[in-house]
Design brief:
CATH class: Mainly Beta
Radius of gyration: 14 Å
Strand order of the largest sheet: 4-3-6-7
Distance between the termini: 31 Å
Number of domains: 1
Helix content: under 10%
CATH architecture: Sandwich
Mean pLDDT: 87
Number of strands: 7
Low-confidence stretches: none
């Protein structure tokens, strides 16, 4: 998925949770992958905790747009250090698949 690009915004809320907003451009439909998958799932990786699913991520193409785009807003309870998107066979996987299509660099929130 070399053309896919994303942007993540993270904000700590008054409950000490983290509000996450992810926007991805040029992410083709999961059904167009080889082998085809059902959908994409966004995962939050935190130190010393297994990756947490943040939900299904869907890509769509608007009528006047040339490229597909998707957006997902969610909340994670532990401080994230990285996010990644996987292509999955089902809607609610317990663990991420090996088919990672986009990943952020490690970061440290202040």
């Amino acid at each position: 998925m070399p053309t896919a690009q994303g942007h993540v915004k993270i904000r700590k809320d008054y409950n000490s949770d983290y509000d996450v907003s992810l926007t991805v451009m040029n992410l083709t439909s999961a059904q167009m992958l080889s082998p085809a998958k059902k959908n994409y799932v966004l995962w939050a990786e935190s130190a010393n905790v297994r990756p947490e699913s943040m939900g299904k991520f869907q890509s769509y193409k608007r009528i006047l747009s040339r490229s597909p785009k998707g957006k997902l807003e969610s909340i994670v309870s532990t401080q994230p250090i990285r996010f990644f998107i996987t292509a999955e066979e089902n809607d609610y996987p317990q663990f991420p698949s090996d088919h990672v299509v986009l990943i952020t660099k490690l970061f440290n929130l202040k």
